[in-house]
Amino acid sequence: MTDIAPRATRVVASTGGRRRQRGGGPRARTIAAFLTPFFLPFVLFYLVPVGYAVWQSFLVVRRTGGQYGTSYTTFGGFEQYTKVFQNDEFWSSIGRIGLFGVVQVPVMLFVALIMALLLDTPLLKLKSFFRITAFMPYAVPGVIAAIMWSYLYSPQISPLVDGLKSVGLHPDFLGPGAVLWSAANVSTWLWTGYNMLIMFSALQSIPQELYEAAKLDGASNWTIAWQIKVPIIAPSIILTTVFSIIGTLQLYAEPAVLRQISSNISSTYTPNMLAYAVASGNNYQQAAAISVVIAVITFVLSFGFMRLTSKKAGL
Amino acid sequence: MALMFLLAIYFLLPVYFLIVAATKPQSDLASTNGLAFSHFDLFSNLSTLFSRSDGIFVKWALNSVIYAVLGAAVGTLISALCGYALAKFTFRGREFLFSVILGGVLVPTTALALPLFLLFSATGIVNTYLAVFLPSIVSPFGVYLARIFASAAVPEEILESARLDGAGEFRTFFSVAIRLMGPSLVTIFLFQFVAIWNNFFLPMVMLQKESLFPITLGLFEWNGQTARAPLLQESVITGSLVSIVPVIILFLLLQRFWRTGLASGALK
């Protein structure tokens, strides 16, 4: 044994470190030693960039004396934010992502919930097979999932398009009206099983006696599922919803891949793609303002949703 | 039951398609049925994939492994230390620190990537392994899980008796607590591994040098070139298969860790 830690504790003890109320807990310096390895990088790579983005978003680049003057950076107040809110591309990207989220998130979570409830009934066979197939996409990175699906969407290669053609349908998965839903399908494919597993794990930890009591009272499987199981696992449904909201607002990889084969996705299709496009045009202050707005919307939506639902669910 | 089978087909379809497509010669991709095997060319596709651009795919695979395995290992250790301290030590400001971390869970990581790029370019870290590795080790969600796991799995009495025996806090942590937390640490590791493995935006913002790319970014770049170089298609398909199959197998083998981890994570 190296004996470093106890000695350190003793030194701090002799200088009068604060004691824990109960038992011989560690002193401040020891606690700091436990926390620092996480907090140092957390501050450097989370808090500092957030602060830096906020600071950048209040700056503007101006030029002295017309187009050929030298440029200088100065405080611009809310100028960058005004620009963001006046930018049509920003609003259309928000609108797109809003539509995407309002449809995709409920569909995905509803399917996940149904699967979790079915897996939780004793009636279903081949449980582990179904659980494993649904969870498998979680191991597939978004980019690669989008590449896989893009081959299934592409008219030249896709067996799906061929199959639908043979029954007289001519789908255009990459058309202007459809491509958003093609991207939504990739997200649904990726995340349904993961959400299902969170709900299923919560279901599994409900004590069986609860169901027996309900059965004695004459409740059907259906009633037990919707009146007992769903309310009990409400916290995990809320958790999956919050994760899905965050995920939706961050959407980047899937539309970026589909953009490689579809002209119906612009370089500013989602808020994150817009931020990246603006940053690539060297307008970092404007990109920072967009990033801050995305972060604030994410925060407000997920936090607001948590507050709203946990009040309703009486938690 | 029928519904579950339909869903299972839905989840399996793209992977099945990928397996079939990876065994075909490029010329058969468009001309034969995508769901039926034709000429079996998997091995020549693999050798094309691995030899393309002086074997850059192997380099990408190694990079992905380095970023994800090393990043998740370091990340799990620091999350465990922090989560354990938050669960087991009482000190002033503890709840405040915990709420700051919880706030971190809600910060979209893609919104962090751009300001991080500016900070890193000022310090010259951009376009190095560190640019992707360093931000990856931070996982607020890992700390959140570690705190829950530590309160559940490490009984107060054991800590007290270790202290009475004169063990320092670090010795207690590394020889006692970490073993009790073992299965949950695997969960944290897996969560973080997947998050880094799947992360695409950060490496895309940080890296210009192809030799530093992870697989995701590399395949994305190739996929973008297929319009000009259609022969790349087969390598993109085979490369996608090579990159996902080992991970899928690993995950299915480790399933039981996920279940316990998800259960305790979701309930609190």
Description:
The complex is a heterodimer of chains A (315) and B (268). With 315 residues, chain A is mainly α. Chain A has helices at 4-14, 28-57, 79-86, 88-120, 127-135, 142-153, 159-166, 179-204, 209-216, 221-232, 234-249, 253-259, 271-280, 284-312; strands spanning 59-63, 71-75. Chain A is built from 14 helices and two strands, in the order ααββαααααααααααα. The longest helix of chain A is centred in the first third of the chain and has 33 residues, at 88-120. Chain A is globular. With 268 residues, chain B is mainly α. Chain B has helices at residues 2-22, 26-31, 42-51, 56-88, 94-106, 109-123, 129-136, 140-153, 156-164, 169-180, 182-198, 201-206, 215-225, 232-253, 255-267. Chain B is globular. Chains A and B meet through α1, α2, α4, α5 and α6 of A and α1, α4, α5, α6 and α9 of B.
Kindly summarize this structure in a few lines.
The complex is a heterodimer of chains A (315) and B (268). Chain A is mostly helical. Chain A contains 14 helices and 2 strands; from the N terminus they run ααββαααααααααααα.
Strand and helix map with partners:
The complex is a heterodimer of chains A (315) and B (268).
Chain A: H1 4-14, H2 28-57, E1 59-63, E2 71-75, H3 79-86, H4 88-120, H5 127-135, H6 142-153, H7 159-166, H8 179-204, H9 209-216, H10 221-232, H11 234-249, H12 253-259, H13 271-280, H14 284-312
Antiparallel strand pairs in A: 1-2
Helix pairs in contact in A: 2-14, 3-14, 4-8, 4-11, 5-8, 6-8, 6-12, 11-14, 13-14
Chain B: H1 2-22, H2 26-31, H3 42-51, H4 56-88, H5 94-106, H6 109-123, H7 129-136, H8 140-153, H9 156-164, H10 169-180, H11 182-198, H12 201-206, H13 215-225, H14 232-253, H15 255-267
Helix pairs in contact in B: 1-14, 3-14, 4-7, 4-8, 4-11, 5-8, 8-11, 9-10, 11-15, 13-14
